Automatic annotation (TrEMBL):
Belongs to the PHP hydrolase family. HisK subfamily. Residues 5-214 form the PHP domain. GO terms for molecular function: histidinol-phosphatase activity. This is Histidinol-phosphatase. InterPro entries: Histidinol_P_phosphatase_HisJ, PHP_dom, Pol/histidinol_Pase-like. Keywords: Amino-acid biosynthesis, Histidine biosynthesis, Hydrolase. It is an enzyme of class 3 (hydrolase).
Amino acid sequence: MRKKDGHVHTPFCPHGTKDTLEMYIAQAVQEGFTDLTFTEHAPLPKGFIDPTPMKDSALDYNKMEDYIQSVQEMKEKHKNDIRIHIGLEVDYIQDYEQEITDFLNEYGKFLDDSILSVHFLKINDRYYCMDFDEKTFGLMINEAGSLYHVHHIYYNEVLKSINSQLGDYKPKRIGHITLVNKFQKLYPVTFSTLKILEKILASVKEKNLELDYNVAGLRKEYCGETYPNSDIIYLAQKQKIPLIYGSDAHSARDVGKNYTHYDLLRNRY
């Protein structure tokens, strides 16, 4: 039986740890995984300015070839221990669809398995990294006018990402579709988002895509649940949408973290 962690970062991540690829792989093998996908943050689209203070959200273009080569070497070296997949976590960003497509056309042929995520939201002509910190999220609420409007903007961007035309190498898995809940203990949701989430799931199903079952939210101080949560997982399971476990590990110790949570919830439905 295959056991996969489909969302793992690397020492190439500018905002991650310096844990080596070997350390990530060793942890995956120790945890009994048969498959491991390295999904480093893809370089941001050309012309897009990273809104985070340190400009460290993603891999630098100049390191793409090193990244691919390094994972390819690990793939060959450990082929008798675990199946390693070369991937990326690609950001869908409003107004940069062509640049994203151009990037995927250049590097997609080297990729085995990737994720398409939304981290950056455009509010009143300014981009924000929505999951950077709670202060930034608060600024987004003020700029948008309400928490409801931030959720509305986010979920519509996720829907656009699903329906986007990004070429033959568009990722087949949609990342952490409820990331907007990362700070929910500080900013409680008092309104229903079920209708838009049902539309998102319907589009995922229609496009024959997968969902990232991301457990990183369980490790976040102000979240405390997976992305998506159990209610949305239930709806996805009913539609037989593939749910791929992702630790979203930025350090070796988090590879495979909370897998039992995923296994229990998946089998419950």
